Amino acid sequence: MPNEIEIADNLIQLIASGKLKAHDKLPSENEIAEKYQVPRIVARKAYESLEDLGYIYKKQGKGSYVQERLPQIELVLSGDVSFSEKMREKGYNFFSRNIGCKEIAYNRKIYDYLGADQSDRIYRIGRLRFIDQKPIALHLSYVSRSVFEDIDAVGMNITSMFQYYHSKGYREFAPKPSILSVVFPTKSQRKLLECTHLVPLLALESGCADKKTHMVLDYQKIFYRSDCFSYVVP
Coiled-coil ranges per the record (predicted)? Predict the structure, then answer.
C-alpha cells in the first residue's frame, strides 16, 4: 500500500512528463484513494503536499488542478554583470521593484565585509525581481554611507545597484567569492516571493568590488526561488 509521499511522487512524474498539463483537473481525493487502495486521509495528505510544493491548486467546491509552472531560467552565477542585465539579455519580461532602504544595526559580519568601522552607517536596499509579473528573486544589498553619501536619500528609488554605481563613476566590477546554501523561506520571504514553506530558496552571499581600486562596494544576500532557475556556476 503506497503512502502519501509515493502517491505525490507519482503525480509529480505525470506533471513533469506533460501527461498532466497546467490547469488540468485532477481526480478527486476519493478517486485517488480508490485507485491506490488507501484511506482517503492518505490521498488528502498527498494533495496537501503537492499544494505546499506548488504543483497543484484548489478551487473551492470544484476540486484540485495542476498549477502552471514558472519558467526555468538559466542563471549564470557571476557578479560582474547585473541580474537585470542578464534577464533582459535573455529577452525576459523583467522588472525590479524597490522594497525599502533601511539603516541596519551593527552586524560584525557585514561591517567586516565592507571594511567599515563601528561608527559607519550601513544601509540595506531591497529589490524584488519579477518575470512575467511573478516574483522570482529577492536581492538585498548592504552599502556604507561613508562610501555612498546620498544612499539614505536615494536608496528608496534604486532598482539596480549597478546603475547606481555607474552614476557614481564605477564602471567595471570584480565579483567577490560567493557562498551558496539552500534555505527554506521565512514568513516574510514567502509573502514577498509568493511561495509556500516547502519551496526551497537558493541563498547566495557575495559582494561586489570596484575592479580598478579593489574597494568593496557592497555585501549582497540574494534569495532565488529554486523552482524558477537552473544554475550555471562559472
Answer: none
Closest CA to 81 of 143, 156, 161: 161
Burial (CB count within 10 angstroms: exposed 0-12, middle 13-18, buried 19+), residue 171? exposed
The enclosing domain of 28 has a CATH number of 1.10.10.10
Collapsing DSSP to helix, strand or coil, 185 comes out as: coil
Q: Helix (H, G, I), strand (E, B), or coil: what is residue 171?
A: coil
Tell me, yes or no, whether 192 and 141 share the same domain: yes
Tens digits of residue pLDDT in 34-69? 999 999 999 999 998 888 877 888 988 889 999 887
Pick from 179, 180, 165, 178: nearest CA to 215:
165
CATH of the domain at 83: 3.40.1410.10
Grid cell in block for residue 97: 521593484
Q: Which long-range contacts (CB under 8 A, 24 or more apart) does 29-38 make?
A: 32/7, 36/1, 36/2, 36/7, 37/1, 38/1, 38/2, 38/3, 38/7
Q: What is the dihedral of CA 54, 135, 82, 141, to 10 degrees?
A: -100
**Helices and strands (H and E) in the chain: how many:** 8, 11
Q: Which of 17, 47, 66 marks a domain boundary? A: 66
CB 79 within 8 A of CB 178: yes
What residue numbers bound the domain in which 13 lies?
A: 4-66
